[in-house]
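Researcher: Please predict.
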Amino acid sequence: MRARGVVSRVEGAYAWVDVSVSGGCGRCHEAGGCGGVNIARPFGQARRELRLLNEIDALPGDPVGVFVDDAVPLRAALFTYGGPILGVLAGAALGTVLATGGNTDLPAALGAGAGGVAMYLFGRARSGPAGVMPMKIERVAGEPAGGCGR
């Protein structure tokens, strides 16, 4: 997904980009439309201004393209769902192996809980700074903001 925007302000290493949710090709909400303007509504929120890492040293007023790297959704799903599930399974297995005596249920349950929580916290630590969207910006040559995303 790609959308056009304009840098509204720069604060340190971050740029605030105003992404227009109006305009577009007119087919964004129809079947077969690119949906490019939907990038302005991450996670279903009707946001117009996004805080993004300013890797291109954009200045206020610069037209930019906003996009999501292809690997971001897959990586997010793996850390969000896969990590805790693997943690639960590994923790339960470790709890069962380390159990002494005949009852392995309690150690397996404790290990499963600890493994799930540990992997959840690991995923949170790897998710990046709070309030920064997992999107990138790129330079565009003087194109108007609010395009269809193509």
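Model: The radius of gyration is 21 Å.
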